[in-house]
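Preliminary data (for renewal application), guanosine-5'-monophosphate complex.
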Amino acid sequence: MNFLESKILSDGVLKEGNILKVNGFLNHLIDVDIADQMAADFIRRFKGEHITKILTIEASGISIAMVTAFKLHVPMLFAKKTQSLNVDGEVYAADAYSFTHKTNNHIFVSSKYLSPDDKVLIIDDFLANGQALKALINIVEQAGAKVVGCGIAIEKGFQEGGALVRGLGYRVESIAIIDEMDYATQTIKFREQN
Ligand code: 5GP
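Predicted structure:
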């Protein structure tokens, strides 16, 4: 069992509707040592790739994306969910429907922060149905940049996102993949990984 799987078992809480709450170390309070270990694991998995930028989506992807970018000495860009006066000019935008929150997120980044020579590692906290990841990939490709791969903290392997995005030909590396979780018994089964 790896460090993140252990942390999920000790601190994660299963909610009805196949939701895993990890507010105690990833989605609200941030455990910086776990974030540091996740960043190191992403870097190990994508070793040899010439990454020029990390892209994530606000808010929960930012902590792990930031530590990864810091270790690689590359900029970290996060897609925004709300249009504000702070972002002016042209944007690359995409829609991501969240089945978890039952809302559509119109996400965007300023076009000046992605260029065709960028090699982008996308990072996010959860992969469930894959809508957030697909929207981020779409944004990178609008810029003519290359998606090196996707680094995910927790993949819910029983939902379709992982198969969907891998099926499109993208490399997805998830530190913990949950194959089964049961609210009634509060049990979680992880997929074996090398
Ligand atoms: P997707 O677009 O892959 O369906 O969902 C990705 C997003 O939904 C994640 O960024 C995360 O915000 C949220 N999400 C999906 N499932 C869960 C879950 O079980 N727990 C938490 N905390 N967030 C989830």
